[in-house]
Amino acid sequence: MARGRGNFNSNGKQKDEGEKVKISKESLKQALVLFTYLKPYRTKFILSMVFIALSAFTTSLFPFFLGKMIDAASPGGSAGMMGGAPSMIEGLGLKEVKWTLNFTLILIFVQLSFQTIFSFMRVYLLTEVGEKSLADMRKDVYSKLLSMPMSYFTEKRVGELSNRISSDLSQIQDAISFTLAEFLRGIFTLVIGLGFIFWISTKLALVMLAVVPVIAVLAVVFGMRIRKMARKAQDQLAESGTIVQETFQGISIVKAFTSEVYEISRYVKSVYAVVDTAIANARYRGAFISFMIFSVFGAIAFVMWYGANMIQTGELTMGSLTMFVIFSMFVGGTFAGFADMFSQLQKTLGATQSVREILRTEGEPVELTPIAIESQYVLKGNVTFKQVAFSYPSRNDVSVLKDITLTANNGEQIALVGPSGAGKSTIAGLLLKFYEPTSGSIWFDDKNSTTFPLTQLRKQMAFVPQDVILFGGTISENIAYGKLGATAEEIADAARKANAHDFISKFPEGYETIVGERGIKLSGGQRQRIAIARAILKDPAILILDEATSSLDSESEQLVQEALDNLMKNRTSFVIAHRLSTIRNAHKIVVIDKGTVAEQGSHEQLMANNGLYRKLNDMQFEFGSVVK
Asked: Could you say which of 104, 242, 286, 513 has the lowest number of CB atoms within 10 Å?
């Protein structure tokens, strides 16, 4: 059974989180290159940084005002009874200031109003910058992927490529819109918070700093272990999901082989592995939560105890101790948050590495903007293969084609036949310049194919494959893919020539019928005729048909063959044929065997030669007689 698709890393392990990479000078350099996408929006980006700083500062004023409020409510409390080293803030006289309860409340609401505005602006501006820069990045990555050669797509999973565009770029967007903002805000909060706690009391600050880092380090260690166990559980859960997916995809095989018991046992084993991991993780999380409750509240109690002693000795006020505790919580929370930000940074660097790898890869020289066919590149339809040899890039040691020489004149129908694996489809790929010959050359109208711009050449060719790919839109949109912007009349005319108009008209929605994913709502013959209509609308100089009728029933084959005959009129056609009965009227039949041209000629000539073609023809005829 085919395994379900998913996102996998290089080791074949399913990716539920972004790949992490070590933070190094090179990885940071790669990440900074992608930040060039912020350049068009740099003014708003800089403004957002300013608002981040202002937001952090106004947030830090809240504990200060709260402490002043408590001092104002304390009988006999004096704001000048705080110990600590002199500082610039102290020089402003803030330590000696004592406000009334009402005035302090007004200051708090003024501070909250400004904080609200600053927070809104930082979120809004960073989100706008992040979304717009990400859209530019998505466009460039998608455009680059579309320009990649066919060899690239044979080596990459579809799930992996879609993952690059979705999750990797979203990870980068999160870094711009959220992680970067939180990191800078954390830095500002940390600096301001430390400044305030040392301003309030140097002695108490040193006591607090002796406790908080120990708790923070232990929290990071626990957190790493918990995240590791959580990732393991996610991987196991994904594996159980894969079992469900592939079982239902191959449900007919499961039932035919009475493998229900086996599949249930396989699924149960996978599910209980998740249970075991989740329970083990729960033990770590329980221990972590218990430790944090004990440590955090214990640290607060210790600091409060020490501060209460300082209040008794007159070194500190109640309001000052309240300020100190809240600022300490700010500092401790920021320390704990940095661990998660560090993890996010590692994942972002992994994502930027993957995206940069795509953007730096050399693609095909295809045009990514609409172009018209230039007069000097207009094809008449003459094609010549001169001693062409080819090996796939991934299998250089295996020669697929060896010394292929053949000629097709304008308007001729050239049939390519031979055993499976002989190299017929490879010739079609070379015609479309999906690949370049290892040696030899291909000529169009007495011009080497290398002198043609790639897009100019492909715009004058049409390809109808055996396994037709339709897109998930309407029938009209799928036919119009051959000529973007075609009128309804042109689309209907192409459908008539392809023997498709009648069945399309019977649908309630007609040409606006949704075909479903990959054309699943249509039969094989209907999909083929829509593909032929698409090719007719393109009106190519050169047509390539890859076993277009091999998987159809007799009735559908007849309708499709009539449509193909209409399509091949007055244009050079290369027909890869499995059923030899469909190409007997071809101008030239080229027999490919083991990567070479074994023989070529008309049907009558090849039958008289008593060679491979006659042998293949007789085998099909005998098989057809037996079936009848």
From this structure: 286
